[in-house]
Amino acid sequence: MSKKASLENKFERSLFASRWLMAPMYLGLTVALAMLMVIFVKELAYYLPKTLTLTADQGILAVLTLIDLSLAANLLLIVLFSGYENFVSKFDFDTGADRPGWMGKVDFAGLKLKLIASIVAISGIHLLKVFMSLGKPNTGTDISVETMQWMVIIHLTFVVSGVLLALMDWLAPKTK
């Protein structure tokens, strides 16, 4: 083997090994998931004693808050598992029937679509919460028309971005 080939081989091996620099980031995302769980429990503990005194609108807003946190946690899990398996290493243990069906099957294109779909859902829920609280006293949402317009524009930007990403992923294999 020539000296150049040996040097190239070592360089490529070190590049390949550098993927492990992502592992601490995925560990950090695990900590972020625990943080979301604590916030979820805190919100649940806040609303639970008020259950019998909440109006229907307040109850729906409380549930939407919990759904919003749950979607964010689901998104975090998808990024955590898919990112680790796509960019660092496959999981080497047998999880049996408990293994989620999508795990190990979500490639980078699928991850992008799941990510944008989750962002659209989270944005939509947040927008719905704001719409529902408009004109209601003691909701803590005194939002100007301009702010509301920007929220709708940003949400629609997420929607259009998702559609364009899906279209690009659909068109990519057809261009060969």
TrEMBL record:
Q: Which domain of life is it from?
A: Bacteria
> Is Cell membrane included in the keywords of this UniProt record?
yes
Q: What are the record keywords, sorted?
A: Cell membrane, Membrane, Transmembrane, Transmembrane helix
Q: A Pfam family this protein belongs to?
A: UPF0114
Q: How does it sit in the membrane?
A: Multi-pass membrane protein
Subcellular localization, per the record? Cell membrane
Q: Which InterPro entries match?
A: UPF0114 (IPR005134), UPF0114_bac (IPR020761)
Q: Which residues cross the membrane?
A: 20-40, 60-81, 113-132, 152-172
Name the NCBIfam families for this protein. HI0507
PANTHER family listed in its UniProt record: UPF0114 PROTEIN YQHA
Family membership noted in the UniProt record:
Belongs to the UPF0114 family.
Name of the molecule in the record: UPF0114 protein Q9295_13595
Name its species.
Pseudogemmobacter lacusdianii
